[in-house]
Specification:
Length: 209
């Protein structure tokens, strides 16, 4: 049985997720900041991390990638369309905010594409959900009935599209076709804020009316 834990990190309180199985093996999703805290949480739970998964490569989702990767010697997965964002502060947006550190990581180890994927004991689905950014993806754990969706869909809101390479129509199409098609009671974990469900968003999200 899978368990998911949420850790809001950094100045923008970006949700980092740790998905863990009964044997302690785990996946780290969007280590955006506070790498030492993420490492400590994993070690406290006797976790055995297998990989870092990135929903997309805006700076607040990737700030601790190398610290966590290097500590545990694990690979990083990202969609090919944002492979260079990991290394480039102008692309990942960190150069736009004076006072925040420039974010630059090493290259990813693997590229995500739509479809089923297996990492160790974890079997889940990748859905390409662009709009907030061109390489945004969502991770669908069907058997455990939850999805990690990055900044695509939020509780009663949707992801920003006013950033470079954002596209409102594309985002809405991603939400309607890839996320609201999930079971109404599927737990949806966003990049910021509390979890929700497709059923709740169909009823209460003002952007989806």
């Amino acid at each position: 049985m899978l368990k998911i834990r949420t850790y809001p990190l950094g100045p923008i309180q970006t949700n980092c997720y740790i998905v863990k199985d009964s044997e302690g093996q785990c996946l780290v999703v969007d280590p955006g900041e506070e790498g030492s805290r993420i490492i400590q949480k994993i070690e406290n739970m006797n976790g055995k991390p297998l990989a870092i998964l990135l929903t997309h490569a805006h700076f607040d989702h990737i700030g601790a990638v190398d610290e966590v990767r290097d500590h545990f010697s694990i690979p990083v997965y990202i969609h090919r369309e944002e492979q260079y964002w990991l290394m480039n502060p102008d692309l990942n947006g960190s150069s736009r905010y004076p006072g925040l550190p420039l974010v630059s990581n090493k290259a990813a180890d693997h590229f995500l594409q739509e479809g089923q994927i297996t990492i160790g004991p974890f079997q889940f689905e990748i859905r390409h959900t662009p709009g907030h950014s061109p390489g945004s993806v969502s991770f669908i754990f069907k058997d455990a009935q939850f999805a990690i969706v990055g900044d695509t869909l939020f509780k009663q809101s949707i992801g920003r599209t006013d950033l470079p390479n954002g596209d409102t129509n594309m985002l809405l199409n991603s939400i309607q076709g890839k996320l609201l098609s999930l079971p109404d009671d599927c737990k949806v974990y966003p990049g910021h804020g509390p979890s929700t469900t497709p059923g709740a968003e169909k009823v209460s999200n003002p952007f989806l009316k």
